[in-house]
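Technical note accompanying the year-one report. For the benefit of new consortium partners, we illustrate the data format agreed upon in the data management plan: each record pairs a sequence with a structure-token string. No post-processing was applied to the example shown here.
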Amino acid sequence: LDEVSGLGFSSIAVKPGLHRVRTVIHHRPGRNKGLLWNIFGPSPRPLDEIALLPADTTLASVSDYNLFKLVEWASQLGPKIASQGAQGPNQEQAMAMMKAGLQALGIDYDRLLKSYGGRLGFLLILNPEKRVILPAKDKPLSIPEPEIALLLRVNDSYLFDTLKGKLPPQARAKFSEAGGMKRIVFPSLPAPFPVEPVVVQKGEWLLAATHPSLVEKILDKHSPRLSETEVFKAISYRIPRRGNGFMYASPALPRLVGQVMRENMAAFQPRAALEKIISVLDRSKGLYSIMENSDQGLVYTINHGLEVSSLPGLVEAFVEIAAEKARIKAATAEPPAEEQPQQGK
């Protein structure tokens, strides 16, 4: 944080219905030795993993993330705590203890470091044609059926092979390998929506998904891609094509959130405030952001379809919700116990 030399922010309309926000966390030349500048990967690169996203992706993010830089940074905290009078291991001791703990689990830290490809991500697909009922405090919530996948870039099969070797027989997992794809499929789990966990590695990507059909959509190059849709082309208009990570939210996401709120209105109060929020969500056009780790700091470019004129109404709605919660809390709070008179008074 000591290396941060400035913050910048701008917001413009790039065309009707599309706005761009740019935020910069700046550092001076050579002042980029801290964790903040080194955990998000090296210089900007082509964001090739966008090609993995199916056309019906609702929410997704993939970023460069140096997990091992974070581990090394955390190991430096011991000596700093010790220097303040507390007894703690030095950095070498802390790293040795962590490596020994992993080794006891059959995991080689240095081999894992070599295997990790430096990118992490996830994607979510919500199917509005299928509904899921989730238990809630006052009334069950109805939501679109979700599909979820985690994405990890790897340099080899060490992580997959280690996971496969650690599975106990009671996991009842099935392993297969064909067409350059390694797969572990687990039995279906009891859940409100279909969950048949699967772990797959193909090439440089290791995937963990809620269902094999989602993996097929991600890895099948002939399946319709998000990058080919008019919706994505519109929200990514004139945004940088290189970076160290991205986040995408489909225009369908805010509308689906609004639909969930509308269908479960009894669980959300006050109604007038919720109607204001739903109205804004229904008009939203999604979001697409790029993060760049540049030679001058971190640059975030965000394209979004939220009208600035709707912000006052949103703020007013959240204030009304907070006031309603405070009123309910005050109404349901137990009255203070009456003070008992002391003897002799």
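Partners are asked to follow this layout when depositing records. The two ends are 61 Å apart (CA to CA).
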